[in-house]
Amino acid sequence: MHKIIVCLVALFFLVPFKTALSFPTKNQDCSKCHTLKKEEADALLKIFNKNIKVLSVARSKAKYLWEVSYESDGKKGLVYVDLPKKHLLSGTILDLQSKKNITQEKLSEINRANVSQIPLKDALVIGDKNAKQKVIVFDDPE
């Protein structure tokens, strides 16, 4: 009987200790415990818009957030999901040290045009067509 009481008392003290260890410590990599798959992100975003297609999921430069790039109605965008997948953040994230707009940098990257896919068959060439650098101008003649 004495051994059972000792075990129960030990268990009683270990349970709070175990939950205290579940909180992140300094420099801990939370991505080891938390994941967000593309399919999960797709389901979360479709709550708000059924036409959304998730392009990629990555850890954000802002700690404790997932960076989710998506496409909807031909436009690409970016949102953030917190690690427990309870909040969706839409907006700009600024790095206070570097004073850079993290969101705008990623949006520029995912919306970059692939120049090799622009059809130039009927293009009007001004200057040397074999020039090292080229400028493509789009214009509406009307």
State the gist of this model:
With 142 residues, the chain is an alpha+beta fold. It has a domain at 30-112: Nuclear Transport Factor 2, Chain: A (Roll). Helices cover 26% and strands 20% of the residues.
Written overview of the protein:
The chain is of the alpha+beta class and 142 residues long. The protein is built from 3 helices and 6 strands. The strands form 2 sheets. Strands 1-2-3-4 form a 4-stranded antiparallel β-sheet, with helices on both faces. A two-stranded antiparallel ribbon has the order 5-6. Strand 1 (53-59) and strand 2 (65-72) form a beta hairpin. Mean pLDDT is 83; it is low at 17-22.
Biggest beta sheet attributes: 4 strands, antiparallel
Second CATH tier, the architecture of the domain at 30-112: Roll
**Helix percent band:** 25-40%
What radius of gyration results from the CA coordinates? 25 Å
Number of strands: 6
Shape: elongated
C-alpha termini separation: 95 Å
What name does the CATH topology of the domain at 30-112 carry? Answer: Nuclear Transport Factor 2, Chain: A
Contiguous uncertain segments of 5+ residues = 17-22
What does the average pLDDT come to? 83
